[in-house]
Specification:
The chain is an alpha+beta fold. It has helices spanning 11-52, 84-103, 110-133, 151-175; strands at 57-61, 65-72, 136-142, 145-149. It is built from four helices and four strands. The protein has a four-stranded antiparallel beta sheet with strand order 1-2-3-4.
Length: 177
């Protein structure tokens, strides 16, 4: 009689490895998207630094939208000037929190993952400025929104909005269960 071969992995263990693969793949996609956003931010800031800084300001749409070179040594909207290391460490901690939430599946879903990529990418973009320049380059000025911002700021802002929508939608979804 022929000896029956036992599978190397049981159904349960292959299910575990499948989940780990999906989690690793999801985290990789989020981090790659975050890196792409940070690179876009840095490329824009490169051109702003070299082309806009010498002239200071360019009106794109008169009375509505301008490109204005600003060295922001604080956080959003120029608040808390000169607290460089605190904001750098806070940014690293928040990126770590998002990665932890993704790994622990605190929240799931496409909206949460998109929000995470936007927040992490924007955070990295501004962190690069803080670490290598000592300030964040801001340049987007809208007449109806006084603070001068940048691409990374808008990534974080849109990501925070999507995160709130994701959390609220998740809470409403759990009420029906």
């Amino acid at each position: 009689m022929e000896k029956k071969k036992t599978p190397l992995f049981t159904l349960h263990s292959s299910h575990f490895f499948g989940e780990v693969f999906i989690l690793a793949f999801t985290l990789t996609i989020i981090l790659v998207c975050s890196a792409v956003l940070a690179v876009i931010d840095q490329v824009i800031k490169y051109f702003i630094l070299h082309d806009l800084a010498p002239v200071g300001q360019v009106s794109v749409i008169d009375g509505l939208f301008s490109l204005v070179y600003v060295e922001n040594r604080g956080i959003a909207f120029g608040m808390f000037q000169g607290m460089f290391w605190i904001f750098s460490l806070l940014t690293v901690a928040l990126i770590g929190v998002f990665i932890y939430m993704i790994v622990k599946k605190t929240f799931t879903g496409k909206l949460f993952y998109i929000a995470s990529a936007l927040i992490i990418g924007g955070g990295i973009g501004n962190l690069i400025d803080r670490v290598f320049r000592g300030f964040v380059i801001d340049y987007l000025s809208l007449s109806f929104f006084p603070p001068v911002c940048n691409f990374a700021d808008y990534c974080v802002t849109i990501g925070a909005f999507l995160l709130a929508v994701s959390v609220i939608a998740g809470m409403k979804g759990n009420q029906h269960e």
